[in-house]
Specification:
The complex is a heterodimer of chains A (134) and B (378). Chain A starts with a helix and ends with a strand. By secondary structure, chain A is mainly alpha-helical. Helix content of chain A is 57%, strand content 4%. Chain A folds into two domains: 43 residues; 61 residues. About 6% of the residues of chain A have low confidence. In chain A, strand 1 and strand 2 form a beta hairpin. In chain A, helix 4 crosses helix 5. The longest helix of chain B has 31 residues. With 378 residues, chain B is mainly alpha-helical. Helices cover 73% and strands 0% of the residues of chain B. Chain B has one domain. The radius of gyration of chain B is 22 Å and the shape is globular. In chain B, helix 3 runs antiparallel to helix 4. Classes of the chains: A mainly alpha (134), B mainly alpha (378).
């Protein structure tokens, strides 16, 4: 016996539906129980419920941090500014690294990482990056 | 002179060279491939190296009746294999897994547990597929659990329902777990848009120590009251986690997640590998199991991703649908795959810790699914 006939003969549809429902019921119930853990602990300890997840500020525009260019990255900023002017903005990091390797720039990963920390290169929130050193 | 020649002839007829046939050679090649993938490619080496070498051990042709082969009652390998056939090894592995798992990301974002539940649809849809292909219900249930992407669970259920299929099911389950970085990404990219892959998750709240201690006790009681057949696996999982979180039994937790799990992994890997003797393993049903295993992984991944997209349809707070793929309980590989695919679009998007929530809930979900299938088949 094969195909749909075999499934029906062996009660496959019912076993699958009930099985999926039981798995979902178990994990949904467990997740609901976990949600009330903070309240239960609060009641036991007689303290306030811990704060929920950090709230996202949706209205305020995030401030763009000012780049801080010190002597250790000044030369790198000059070199990479040339590359950025060539590929345009916004740019992808893999493309920038590829170009840096082709141009023979030393240790592009470490250099780009320093420039990100210094806010010279900043993410645009869409998976690409912008250059902030003028 | 004749006696000497006769002795040489008798000796030769007892060697593996004289008793080998093409099936043993094929399986030895498979074992060598597993060892290569584990050592050279670093694909799940802790699993593939013991299994690969076990395949080599199991496919050395031996004279039956000398107590050498794994299926002979008085052989050493047979005694070691008892831990597989009796279902002893998988719960011990779960003890170690519980002792090394941090459930805090799941406790902080309990709604992500639903993605772990959705991925278990792969188990039941594969069960239907196995029935449609003509497998008996017990065999179909054992094949379906491959979709849970949990090796110990697959071995545990096969030992209970289809002991004759332990070898191919275990090999299929562990092989596809090792290939998660190959199987999942195309499905994830196919089912999501770039905008969806760019979604960043909110930072989760801090989880208190008391929550982490209460969770294994409450989780164990709830899950095992609901599905008592999952008691051996979930009991050991939550017990191991309690040992870890309570801190006062740190020595026991340390042993569980190091020496104990390593010892059991060695014995389980080598005996499962040795059980795949060519004359037992190379059958049409094994081919069917491998095909269904690949399909089950794909369905599980797709189910998780699609369910995450459905949640986004109804929810104002969007979750990255890539997290659905982490519901496949290959811990932590599928979470790493989510991180990798997410970072291909945005290197600043760190999804790994968020993906651990559905990943570990998938472990619980697959154990519940195994318990449910076992109770139905009994």
């Amino acid at each position: 016996m094969y195909g749909l006939e075999a499934i029906s003969h062996n009660n496959g549809w019912a076993i699958s539906v009930v099985g999926i429902l039981i798995v979902f019921t178990g994990l949904v119930t467990l997740s609901m129980l976990i949600r009330i853990f903070p309240k239960i602990i609060g009641m036991i300890e007689g303290t306030e419920t811990p704060k929920p997840a950090v709230q996202k500020e949706t209205n305020a525009q995030p401030k763009t941090p000012e780049p801080t260019i010190d002597s250790s990255i000044k030369e790198s900023v000059r070199q990479y500014q040339y590359l950025i002017s060539w590929i345009g903005e916004p740019f992808s990091l893999p493309r920038l690294i590829e170009l840096a390797n082709k141009r023979g720039l030393v240790r592009p990963h470490a250099t780009i990482s320093k420039m990100i920390h210094a806010s010279v290169i900043q993410p645009d929130g869409q998976g690409y990056f912008l250059w902030h050193a003028r | 002179m004749d006696d000497i020649l006769k002795l040489f002839a008798d000796f030769w007829s007892n060697t593996g060279f004289a008793m080998a046939d093409y099936r043993y050679i094929i399986m030895i090649a498979v074992g060598l491939i597993f060892i290569y993938l584990g050592i050279a490619k670093h694909y799940e080496p802790l699993l593939l190296v013991p299994i690969g070498f076990g395949i080599l051990m199991g496919n050395i042709p031996v004279f039956k009746g000398l107590g050498l082969a794994i299926y002979e009652d008085n052989s050493v390998l047979h005694y070691l294999y008892f831990g597989v056939t009796s279902g002893v090894y998988p719960p011990l592995i779960f003890l170690g897994i519980g002792a090394m798992t941090d459930f805090s990301t799941m406790l902080a974002r309990p709604n992500l547990m639903l993605l772990g539940a959705a991925a278990q649809m792969g188990v039941f849809l594969t069960f239907l597929g196995a029935l449609a292909l003509g497998f008996a219900p017990n065999d179909a249930a054992s094949i379906g659990i491959i979709g849970g992407a949990d090796g110990p669970t697959a071995i545990f259920l096969s030992a209970k329902l289809a002991p004759n299929l332990i070898g191919p099911i275990a090999i299929a389950a562990y092989s596809y777990m090792a290939l998660v970085p190959v199987i999942q990404p195309p499905i994830m990219r196919l089912l999501t848009t770039r905008e969806e892959r760019l979604i960043k998750m909110e930072e989760a709240r801090e989880v208190t120590k008391l929550e982490k201690i209460i969770f294994p006790i409450a989780g164990f009681l709830l899950c095992c009251f609901l599905a008592p057949a999952a008691l051996p696996l979930l009991g050991m999982l939550f017990f191991g986690n309690l040992l870890k979180e309570c801190v006062v039994a740190e020595r026991l937790a340390q042993t569980a997640r190091t020496a104990l799990i390593d010892t059991v992994t060695i014995l389980l890997g080598i005996t499962v590998g040795a059980s795949t003797q060519g004359d037992v393993f190379l059958t049409p049903s094994s081919v069917g199991i491998f095909i269904l295993g690949a399909i089950s992984f794909g369905i599980a991944t797709a189910s998780g991703v699609i369910f995450a997209k459905m949640i986004n349809f109804f929810s104002t707070v969007k979750i990255n649908p890539l997290l659905g793929a982490a519901g496949v309980s290959a811990v932590p590989d599928s979470a790493r795959v989510v991180q990798m695919v997410g970072q291909e679009e945005d290197p600043s998007n760190f999804l790994l810790m968020h993906a651990m929530a559905p990943n570990v809930s998938g472990v619980i979900g697959s154990a519940i699914a195994a318990g449910v299938l076992w109770s139905f088949m009994n």
